[in-house]
Design a protein that fits this description.
The structure holds 2 protein chains of 2 kinds. By secondary structure, chain A is mainly alpha-helical. Chain A has one domain: Non-ribosomal Peptide Synthetase Peptidyl Carrier Protein, Chain A (Orthogonal Bundle), CATH 1.10.1200. Chain A is about 55% helix and about 0% strand. In chain A, helix 1 crosses helix 4. Chain A starts with a helix and ends with a helix. By secondary structure, chain B is α+β, with helices and mostly antiparallel strands. Chain B has a single domain, classed as Peroxisomal Thiolase, Chain A, domain 1. Chain B contains 7 helices and 8 strands. The longest helix of chain B is centred in the middle third of the chain and has 15 residues. The radius of gyration of chain B is 17 Å and the shape is globular. Classes of the chains: A mainly alpha, B alpha+beta. Chains A and B meet through helix 2 of A and helix 1 and helix 4 of B.
Amino acid sequence: MQLKPEVTSLELELKHLIIDALKLEDISPEQIDSTEPLFGEGLGLDSIDALELGVILRKRYGIKIATVTDEVKVHFANIQNLARFILSQREQVS
Amino acid sequence: MKTASFRLRGWGYWTPDCVVEHTNAVPALLRRRVTPLGRQALSSAWELPETANARLILSSRHGEFSRTLSLLEAAANRSDLSPADFTLSVHNALIGLLSIAHGNHKGHTAIAAGQESFCYGLLEAIACLKENPDEPVVLIHFDEPLPGAFSQFNDPTEQPIAIALALATTGEGDLIQIDFEASQHKDKPSTSHSHDFLNFLTGNLTEGLSVGVNVQWRWTRHAVA
């Protein structure tokens, strides 16, 4: 499946953002697969990282996450889902 | 005068003029949650004997204050507090992380006693040995001058340090005796008890004296063949 160019560039931006904000100092953006799980398996982030990420996304993209629903868990599952979620929120606003 | 003693099973330390860098034994996922000073404290204790099954004591006057400062600054600017910083903004956070990483379930104590934090941390460690002679104790002490707007509250003599000691009642290691009594030189207190003790260790001295505002502490080393 071919991804839209804005999705892939946002994915790279998110990788940089996550590495920087969550201080993953020994990981480079190239090492993060956009479809690998962010939490538990894969990158190995935990629940505190999830909260931190919520705050960062609000600051950077103006996204508000009120409660953690199953839907939110899907949005946060990996970089690709997160990028799509942010773009869909932008489209709703514009 | 009161007297107590322990076996020094091992020790580790860091000061800014350390030429030898600690290896990155502390896992990256844990290290990232800790301030630069906290990293040095964790590294100092990481490979001591018994860290995995010792009772843990943390002593620090200010704790990891750089984290507290960024939380306070965020609050003052009415911006969001970092959840990761907030969860670790308690005095015992660092040994909490250490105990999780080592699977250590022995419990821990965190002490802040002003300028004399190191000495009272050591006293707490010895008291734990007295209470349970079969259980080793690891003491971790760290401090650094207060940063930013809080630097006006610093003692001019405060210097960064992280030091970790492994204590036990038996086993290999020098026997260290501690004598302490009401301070007789209150007008001339030592600049830093932890640095005094570090000098006693690194210099392999047989005796060291550190005078506090309230209590003065004498350490004597009895080498064991």
